[in-house]
């Protein structure tokens, strides 16, 4: 497959402003714009003592001439009960092929690296600068769900060394589709270790995520897994979620290359207790009425989104959801199955090309099929990059109403690339064959499938309804930016001082414009979480 150039992150000692040692950088993509430029969001964490954080960036390692003030999503707890603050910022109007260098400006009065609890930071005050290159041409995505945190040992994250090597040595992919059940769970030391270990990837390429059943299984106190997800991945809410009208980082859409990607929250069709944030903004409790409301809002939004896709520009539509259709929570033919009622007809009507899932800890590929006269696209399950529930045995899969074409019960992950004629899929193993104590290995291709481009149309009638009005995200950040710009890939404004948004993270607050506040209100009224 033809791959676009990627550039590895590096540490540099240049004549720069004081740079913070804060960590856990992860990029997400907002989507391509009409002028062929793209917007990225960047998330990171700082010590809990920091009440403002500013990103420095530019097109040269020697001149980070632009700044943007981060917006806080509040705190999350890490190892030994220590807390960090989660921040997000927009990098707008990036030219394909542009390389962007970035770092955080240090605030020595407000930040002490020891309070982060990161050994690497407490031992060194060295500046850390990162960079990424916006892909041009064909874009390849690494695809997996259900990885686990490396600190858990055994099979957890056993494919991660292969993923790191594939990017740093081979530039094998330009982004990550991470389809739920992230670190088992995204809390405490597990969450910290997961984000730190992925940083060498997520600081260079966007990682798009959604929730799985494990995020909801541990949503309530003391884990607060869903709340941690909202805060750590707030950039998706403020980026792709805001731009696509979902006001969410659980379900949203974006376009990249020739593909329009749609992420959905399949836990509204799940069997775990559905926890929801209550109106006071603090209390979480099991709330089945909120599940119903969120599912209805998501289905209406999905039709809103799919009916407006310009297939002449993005000829492929790929839906990503943690659960496969036959686990929502059971088979599609089960009485009352809302996935069958709300999602399947839309996939058929709008000719979705591919459904990507995790949940089952194995590799499975299903060809296109039908259900109640509706067309169901090919389904790929890439749910075995490694976790301590191990590979799912054939007898445990419980597939109702579907027959697989390919089953490979090994640890690994896949790659998805779009060409003008087809979606090209490859899946490979990345570990030894031992189920419970596997060792990491280089990625080895085990399966390859081509999904030909469908004949589709731009002539759908606009339908459905957004959760909130889609926004131009650049307007949300105009007053938070300053500086001379980063060449073609810059965010700039006339604000000059860049004093922008200063927050008090101890209150778990974030800076919102009036339109952001409206978006939050609209989301809450429809049962959609937004912190």
From TrEMBL:
GO function terms (MF aspect)? acid phosphatase activity; metal ion binding
User: What catalytic activity is recorded?
Assistant: a phosphate monoester + H2O = an alcohol + phosphate
Q: In what residue span(s) does the Calcineurin-like phosphoesterase domain sit?
A: 143-363
Entries under CDD domains matching the protein? MPP_PAPs (cd00839)
Q: Where is this region: Disordered?
A: 436-466, 478-531
Membrane-crossing segments per the record: none
Q: Where is the composition biased (Low complexity)?
A: 507-525
What's the short name of a Pfam family annotated to this entry?
Answer: Metallophos
Its keywords, alphabetically, are:
Glycoprotein, Hydrolase, Signal
Q: InterPro entries, per this entry?
A: Calcineurin-like_PHP (IPR004843), Metallo-depent_PP-like (IPR029052), MPP_PAP (IPR041792), Purple_acid_Pase-like_N (IPR008963)
- EC class, as a word, reads hydrolase
Q: Where is the signal peptide?
A: 1-21
EC number(s)? 3.1.3.2
- What PANTHER family has UniProt attached to this entry? ACID PHOSPHATASE TYPE 7 (PTHR45867:SF3), PURPLE ACID PHOSPHATASE (PTHR45867)
Tell me the protein family, please: Belongs to the metallophosphoesterase superfamily. Purple acid phosphatase family.
Q: What is this protein called?
A: Purple acid phosphatase
The organism of origin for this protein:
Phytophthora ramorum
Q: What is the lineage of its organism?
A: Eukaryota, Sar, Stramenopiles, Oomycota, Peronosporomycetes
